[in-house]
């Protein structure tokens, strides 16, 4: 039977003597299940995306527009050189420890990974 490892929608973080509320997408992590995860830089998101989100079209079509825009955007391009190597090394270091790393791709402003959880969070 799969265990639920983590479900989190909000986290309060103490930073510079001020409490800030950071919103996370609700999610459920289960051992042995595959997950596809995308991480983007904050600066790669902008007002154009809000415009796309407000369009009255199917979600799949919205997602296609959003992905196309973000994949070609010059904004928030920080994953190169040493940063790219850091993420690559970090993902590989967790392979077979926390998760099975099935595949990953690192682009200048976002990264994708497909994983299968094999261990509880440390």
Structure characterization notes:
The protein is α+β, with helices and mostly antiparallel strands and 122 residues long. It has one domain (4-117). 29% of the residues lie in helices and 34% in strands. It contains three helices and seven strands, in the order E-E-E-E-E-H-H-H-E-E. It has helices at residues 47-53, 59-72, 81-94; strands spanning 4-6, 10-15, 18-23, 29-30, 34-40, 99-107, 110-117. The strands form three sheets. The chain has a three-stranded antiparallel β-sheet, with helices on one face. A two-stranded antiparallel ribbon has the order 1-4. It has a two-stranded antiparallel ribbon with strand order 2-3. The radius of gyration is 17 Å and the shape is flat.
Summed up:
The protein has about 120 residues and is of the alpha+beta class.
Give the helices and strands, then pairings:
Elements: E1 4-6, E2 10-15, E3 18-23, E4 29-30, E5 34-40, H1 47-53, H2 59-72, H3 81-94, E6 99-107, E7 110-117
Antiparallel strand pairs: 1-4, 2-3, 5-7, 6-7
Number of helices: 3
Low-confidence stretches: 1-22
Strand order of the largest sheet: 5-7-6
Specify the overall morphology.
flat
Structural class: alpha+beta
Tell me about the largest β-sheet: 3 strands, antiparallel
Instruction: Summarize the amount of helix as a percent range.
Output: 25-40%
Element-by-element helix/strand order: EEEEEHHHEE
The fraction of residues in strands falls at: 25-35%
Number of strands: 7
- Domain count: 1
